[in-house]
Amino acid sequence: MADGFHADMGPQYEGEVIRKENLYIEFGGPKVARKFELATVKSPEEVENERIELIGPDLKDFTEGGSYPLAILVDVAGSELDKDAEAIIERRIHMFTNYTEGWYHMNQRQDMWLRMNQDCHKKGFESLRELGEILSFLYTSELSIIESIQITLVTDDKKIEELLPHALEVYTARDERTRTLRDEDVDTFYGCVLCQSFAPTHLSVITPDRIANCGAINWFDGRSAAKIDPEGPIFAIPKGDLIDPIKGEYSGVNKIESERSMATYDRVYLYSAFEHPHTSCGCFEAIVFYIPEADGFGVVNRDFKGETVIGETFSHMAGDTSGGRQVEGRLGTGLEQLMSPKFIQADGGRKRIVWLPKEIKERYKEAFEADGVYDKIPTEEDVKNTDELMEFLEKVGHPWIAGEVELPE
Ligand code: ZN
After folding, report:
1. Do domains 2-177 and 183-396 have the same CATH topology?
2. Cα-based distances in Å from 103 to 195, 214, 369, 403
3. How far is the CA of 265 from the CAs of 244, 248, 260, 262, 276, in angstroms?
4. Cβ distance 96 to 133 under 8 Å?
């Protein structure tokens, strides 16, 4: 065991899933209101190297099997590091926690979800500080660009509440950077295989118009990752030739898709949910789903707990969508994707959306308003099933149902 830790670590533990029967404790996830993870690049004098701080109760203070709030703050400094690297360093929390025997990490940002199993506890893993120490150890051994690192773990819900607004601002600022950059403006896309431990045929293609499925890595982040860790899970994809500008098919993307999916797939449409849609891992922020009755699409995000208009919940649908497959009419995606003018453009784009959770409709109001469909899209408050959906769409004259949306040619 490395350096006296109570848990072994390495990529062999990445696919470990922790089921209820073997659960010791869980942090974040759907049962916990406030949780987040944030990496910040600071100046050397602001980082006390190898300092691990825990604010709030520790493992021994919690009830076994319970779910608790947690924030993980990773502060780093290094002469070669700039702000561009933050999202990438932050995403490694996912990888390194999964490297740790007996630990599991899912999702990202304010949706993160960690689990620790019984066996790990039995081996003497008694303090959350040890998770901080393991992360610190893995960061410094895997990323030489990091010269100093301090990690703060917060389990005090009040403190998390106080820190969360800043984290949300940082996430938004990162997302906004790519909003004016288009796929045609760059020669290089990026690929991410961080999710292959769970979805072996999955490759997230990251372009200016397409954030990674997890919603945590945009094109700028991809560029930074490929630079700071060229051998790492995020790498450059030369775009190659544009085979189909409407569907978003690129020869360079097809080639990498084939190489990295063990030849399971050799074509990807970046701008369509049909024929050769992008693969879906398991950590996608949302699912774009086809609704046959309306011949339109709905979108459901991970945080939406109820049934969608087709009677399925997010988690039910995720089971049919995930695993690294291309599923026609089912697209695991990052929510920021909704802002792109290329979002399923071959299929009619945002104008073909006929159902949204209220929260998502509000969050992306501007984009739906610009397309003239904001008032035409019902939410869980307006319709409960596809009969009510069709009635609503006809009553308001949704442009897709009214036949007013022309597909690009
Ligand atoms: Zn993923």
Report:
1. no
2. 16, 19, 43, 51
3. 17, 16, 9, 8, 9
4. no
| Chosen CATH of 183-396 out of 3.60.21.10, 3.40.970.20, 3.40.30.10, 3.30.710.10 | 3.40.970.20
| Nearest partner of 342 among 254, 219, 237, judged by Cα | 219
**Ligand 1 center to 194 CA (angstroms):** 7
For residue range 146-194, what is the model confidence (pLDDT) as tens digits? 999 999 999 999 999 999 999 999 999 998 888 889 999 999 999 999 8
CATH of domain 2-177: 3.30.1650.10
Residues 324-373: pLDDT tens digits?
999 999 999 999 999 999 999 999 999 999 999 999 999 999 999 999 99
Contact, 199 vs 323, CB < 8 A?
yes
The token duo for 67 is 């779910």
111 CA distance to ligand 1 middle (Å) = 13
Classify residue 21 as exposed, middle or buried by CB count within 10 Å of its CB (0-12, 13-18, 19+): exposed
Q: How far apart are CA 376 and CA 295, in angstroms?
A: 15
46 Cα–ligand 1 center, Å: 32
CA 99 to each of CA 88, 140, 320, 376: distance values in angstroms, whole numbers, following the listed order: 17, 14, 26, 46
CA distance 200 to 369: 38
Q: Ligand 1 centroid vs 112 CA: distance in angstroms?
A: 13
Please give the C-alpha separations between residue 408 and each of 16, 132, 246, 369, in angstroms, as whole numbers: 44, 51, 7, 20
8 Å CB contact between 161 and 57:
no
Domain ranges across the chain: 2-177, 183-396
* 24 pLDDT higher than 50: yes
* Nearest CA among 364, 280, 270 for reference residue 314: 280
If you measure from the C-alpha of residue 213 to the centroid of ligand 1, how many angstroms do you get, rounded to a whole number?
6
The helix/strand/coil state of 283 is coil
Cα(406) to centroid of ligand 1, in Å? 33
Q: Give the ranges where 204-323 is alpha helix by DSSP (H).
A: 219-228, 251-260, 314-321
